[in-house]
Design brief:
Layout (H helix, E strand, L loop, with lengths): L2 H17 L3 E7 L7 H21 L3 E7 L5 H13 L4 E4 L3 H14 L2 E4 L12 E3 L8 H10 L4 E7 L2 H16 L3 E8 L7 H10 L3 E5 L2 H17 L4 H4 L2 E3 L4 H7 L8 E4 L8 H13 L8 H20 L4 H8 L3 E4 L2 E5 L6 E2 L3 E5 L5 E6 L27 E2 L2
Pfam families: Peripla_BP_5
Protein name: Aliphatic amidase expression-regulating protein
Length: about 400
């Protein structure tokens, strides 16, 4: 660990021992620099806001030790090793699946607990990971059903070249095939790639019903701008006739896209800042007051916020930082989150969350066009949601919002 951070950790341990208080150091591991630094900053802010709320309540005190891997897998490995090596048992962090998979073996070896606050592609469980972001049955499956119900039968998939895009595209492909549809094209680009002309031409030539976007970070922002521009040049009303649907598009990214191409995009998520509830209005107001320079709150912000609060509540109840005890205690709790009630499923260690579909507006926000009536249990392996075996009558439905 860098000397300055290590000194901070040691000083805190002395303070904790002298005061005899219920203090806990937790790791924060987000990339606030690099190709998806905007998302990382929003996630860090969500964690910081939750830490401050926990400390203000006075039951326990959290001391965050922050590492920035700068979007590099080697940086995540070094950060995880440093945090766990310093005796920290709980780390809230990671956005990409590649970074999560890179460090899970470290947490399993050292018996730490990674609190992973990002939507992801599923098909994973670990006794050393708590998943507070959406599983595939809570974002990709509802999105595909929404599109199918509106006549979407052909898709062109464009994504960043790693497991998030590969697996989500596979789920989309299989679901479409069962409904008599198909994927007409599939392209993958390196994270951060912004030379998108050939991909856009391929999409326009294929003439799909919709584009399924799994690009992340700067690649995604550039894609939305260039795609809208190319459609305009061909006289295509892109939002109406060739919509782009995503499972990762959030409010800060709408702002990064810019006004010329921000509206008319579909996003499947469990949280949007436009949720109309007293709890969410209080959250967004507190967030805006604490971080007036942004980034704007998002689903990733809220998921990080949830992770820290669930961790703090479990630490307070467990009276120990032992991973197994905290994990078991966390699964006996529920949290009134900005999106609505959230609890952890003790079998999968994933969260029960409320799926929603949003349509982006010119104001760089989302209008919620469909949502579930209650939280949906996680199904990371799609054993209860697989469209090949689960009858339509047994699948959770989204209610269209007028």
């Amino acid at each position: 660990m860098p000397p300055a951070v290590l000194t901070h950790w040691r000083a805190f341990c002395v303070l904790k021992d002298c005061m005899g208080l219920s203090h806990h150091s937790i790791g924060i591991l987000f990339s606030t620099d690099g190709p998806y630094g905007l998302v990382g900053r929003a996630m860090l802010n969500g964690a910081r806001l939750a830490v401050e709320e926990v400390n203000a309540q006075g039951d326990i005190t959290l001391e965050p030790v922050i590492c920035d891997p700068q979007g590099a897998l080697a940086g995540y490995v070094a950060g995880a090793e440093q945090l766990l090596g310093a005796g920290i048992r709980h780390v809230v962090g990671c956005y990409t699946s590649s970074s999560r998979k890179e460090i899970i073996p470290i947490f399993e070896k050292r018996d730490g607990l990674l609190w992973y606050p990002s939507h992801y592609e599923g098909f994973e469980t670990s006794a050393n990971v708590i998943y507070t972001g959406a599983a595939p049955n809570q974002h990709i499956v509802p999105l595909v059903r929404y599109l199918l119900a509106r006549g979407g039968r052909t898709a062109f998939c464009v994504g960043s070249n790693y497991i998030w895009a590969w697996e989500n595209n596979r789920i989309l492909r299989e679901t479409l095939a069962i409904a008599g549809g198909q994927v007409t094209g599939e392209r993958y680009l390196a994270v951060g790639e912004t030379a998108l002309g050939q991909v856009i031409e391929a999409i326009l030539d294929a003439k799909p019903d919709f584009v399924f976007n799994t690009l992340i970070g700067t690649s995604a922002y550039r894609f939305f701008r260039d795609f809208r521009s190319a459609c305009r040049a061909r006289g295509i009303d892109q939002p109406r006739t060739l919509p782009v649907a995503s499972c990762s598009l959030a409010e800060p990214e709408l702002e990064a896209i810019g006004p010329e191409a921000v509206d008319g995009h579909l996003s499947s998520s469990v949280y949007f800042t436009s949720i109309d509830s007293p709890r969410n209005r209080a959250f967004t107001a507190a967030y805006a007051a604490r971080f007036p320079d942004g980034p704007t709150a998002s689903a990733d912000t809220e998921s990080s916020y949830i992770a820290v609060h669930l961790l703090a509540r479990a630490l307070a109840r467990a009276g120990t930082e032992d991973a197994a005890t905290v994990r078991r205690t966390a699964c006996m709790d529920a949290f009134d989150a900005p999106q609505g009630p959230v609890r952890l499923d003790e079998t999968t260690l994933h969260a029960c969350l409320t799926p929603r579909i949003g349509l982006s507006t010119a104001a760089a926000r989302f209008s919620i066009v469909a949502q579930a009536d209650e939280p949906v249990a996680p199904d990371p392996y799609l054993v209860r949601s697989d469209p090949r075996v689960v009858p339509v009558s047994r699948r959770p439905r989204l209610r269209v919002v007028p």
